[in-house]
Write a structure and sequence with these properties.
The chain has 2 helices and 6 strands. It is of the alpha/beta class.
Length: about 120
């Protein structure tokens, strides 16, 4: 299913989602895994890989931790013009958490789309 058509189960700030996972990864995984989330935050960067797939990184620009949103290839055009430092809402399916105290921890959203209904 196209994530753009799915209703989010939870809607929250990127920084709040990060803090929840960092505070209790097990409980947060049980709560959010495989659920559609709407996450809003400041765009830290937009990454295009060598295959042309986009990832939007949301969160506090002063923190190493972030929410990494892999953009559904059907919706790549929606992120081509997204600028670093702007506030953006993204819907995606939570697929996990990568904890790393040295490099910052990441909450991972897959099949993500820009939520144009801000």
């Amino acid at each position: 299913k196209d994530t753009a058509r799915l209703k989010p189960v939870y809607s929250l700030a990127a920084t709040d989602l990060e803090k929840e996972f960092e505070g209790n990864e097990t409980a947060s995984t049980q709560k959010y895994a495989d659920k559609v989330l709407r996450v809003e935050g400041i765009v830290k960067e937009v990454v295009k890989d060598d295959k042309g797939f986009y990832t939007v990184v949301l969160g506090d620009t002063l923190s190493l931790s972030s929410v990494r949103c892999s953009i559904d290839s059907l919706h790549s055009k929606d992120v081509m013009e997204v600028k670093k430092g702007t506030t953006l809402a993204v819907k995606g399916i939570c697929s996990g958490f990568n904890a790393d105290e040295m490099l910052g921890s990441d909450v991972i959203l897959i099949r993500s789309v820009v939520d144009l209904k801000n």
